[in-house]
Amino acid sequence: MTGIKLIRFVGLLEGISFLLILFVSMPLKYIADMHEPNQIIGMGHGVLFILYVAIVLYIHFTIKWGYKNSIWAFLASLIPFGTFVADKKIFKEFDK
Fold it and tell me: Which residue among 40, 42, 77, 96 has its CA within the 20 to 30 Å range from the CA of 29?
């Protein structure tokens, strides 16, 4: 799997896990006092986030992506729905 295909896949998983935290596990934690889903989903999201950032750095240095694309790709992981937008605007352009 190439670096771009990998970041598209991990970005999708990371984006889904981020949305699960925001819209499922956090409401369960604070409304229903259920902490377990937040711990499980949070751990998975943390691992995916670290993997995503590592892949961004890998692509930055191997493909010579440039600072602009790398910074936008990193910022996309911090914003809800950001990795989905990055997939359409940044990653798809390089995955040809």
Answer: 77
* pLDDT tens figures, 29-71: 999 999 999 999 999 999 999 999 999 999 999 988 889 989 9
> Residues 17-47, buried b or exposed e (16+ Cβ, 10 A)?
bbebbeeebeebbeeeeeeebbeebbebbee
Which backbone phi and psi does 64 adopt, to 5 degrees?
60, 55
Question: One-letter amino acid identity for 22?
Answer: L
Helix 36-62 and helix 3-20, axial crossing angle in degrees, nearest 10: 160
CA 6 from chain center: how many Å? 11
Provide the domain count of the chain.
Answer: 1
pTM summary value: 0.89
Domain that holds residue 47: 3-94
Compute the C-alpha angle 70/77/29, nearest 5°: 165
Report the helix count and the strand count for the chain, using DSSP H and E. 6, 0
